[in-house]
Structure formats: C-alpha cells, structure tokens
Request: fold
Amino acid sequence: MSVLDKVKFDADGYMEDSNAWTPEIAEAIAKREEVTLTERSWVVINYARNEFKVKGEAPTLRNITKNTDVDTKELYSLFPGGPGKMAAKVAGLHKPTGCI
Amino acid sequence: MADKKPARKLAIIASKGSLDMAYPPLILANAARMSGVDVDVFFTFWGLDIITKKKMNKLNVAVVGNPSMHPWFHIPTLLGIIPGMSAAASAMMRSEIKKLDFPPVGEFVQLVMDAGANLFGCKMSMDMMKLTEKDLVEGAKVLGAMEFIEMSDGAQLLFV
Reply:
C-alpha cells in the first residue's frame, strides 16, 4: 500500500489536484521517478509550493534560480531527467507553462 | 512511471546572429534541457556571433528588410536607413525581452551551458572570421561540420 494509491495523476504523471499534495506524497513520487530527495531538493520543492500558493501555478526554473540559493547547475543535479518536469511533478504541481 | 524510453536528443544549428534570431535556438535548447532532452547546438556563419564573447551582448535587430518590426517599432523601410535606427530598435527589443524575464544573450548562453547543453562553433566559419576558441564563450568548443553530423546521429535536427 503506497501513499500514491489514492492520488490521481494525469497522463504525464503530474498530480491532478495540487492541493491534495503532502510531503509524504512528494517522497513517494520522487521514488517512483527515481529521484533522490535531499535537503537541497526541499529548498526547491518548498519554494515551488509557496509560489503555487501565491500565483496558482508552477514557477519557472528562472524564477527558482533567481529567488533561491539553488543555481542552474545544482537544480539540474537535484532533478535529473529535466528539472522543469521533475520539480513540478514532485511538488505536486501541473506541468509548467513557462518557457524559461 | 519513470521514463523508460531511450533518451531523446536534439541538435540545433544556429545560423543567424541578429538579436531576434539569437533567441529561438537558445530558448529551444533551454526548453529541451528543462524537459530532460540532450542538446547540441552548432553555431555557424552569423550564428557564431551568439557565442563570440565580443559580440554576444551587442547583437542588433535589422530594421531594413524586416517586415516584422511591428509592434515594437513599426517604421517604413526607407526610414530604416537613418543612422541609429537599428540601435534604437534593438534597445527597444532588449527591453521587451527583459520584461518577459528572459536574460540578455550572454547570460542566456551561460544558462543553457549550465543546464547541460553542448555548444559548438563551426570551424569553417571561425576560420573565415579569423576567430579561435579563445574568442568563444568559455565552455564552447570548435567543431567541424562533419563531426557535428556524426555527433547528431539519431537526434532530431533543427535549423534556425
């Protein structure tokens, strides 16, 4: 029994209801996507969640690197397989629409 | 549900060095990296200016012969020949790009390299313009056209 059993995802693996997200769900999604979460990953995830609360959508990567101490290189090492997709997935957000 | 498909690869050829034509290859290279797609970008002919240290932050947009200047700077071609017109249009475009939170060309080139894209200067174009690897932004390498074609085996190819 996984915490993901009751979570609904879209066809690309993003959570349908971002408000149903919990840190436990993030850990489970990360495991499913084969991403190891560290303290630094949580800096990104928490920032993305806060941005979602304020703006209602996933922040762009440029927004993340400008407003946290995580730079582009680190962001890519924290979320292999494309941080644009992975960070949003783990943070329970929809696919980012920003182009940068 | 991890992605089990073979890694997707994109090869971009950037052949133009005007301010407006510098952004498409950079935006697409960056978007590809954000989605986890491997990217090689080959800068050839005027596209070389995008990764040439002395030129990358001084790219201009052409006013004459450019029917798409509207809505930034809708001016008839004849007036475009007035000195300073291209510089003014370029300044205006830079400010519009900044408003969208896109970085200036030099910073953008660094961004796509940090994101893991591989950048190459076309050897033949560099010889023609009397440039060496030292003239290119740090991290960009010099490559022959044939090597690039071999390298892009299996990749989706995009010519800008």
Observations:
- The mean pLDDT of chain A is 92.
- Residues 39-55 of chain A form the longest helix (17 residues).
- The radius of gyration of chain A is 12 Å.
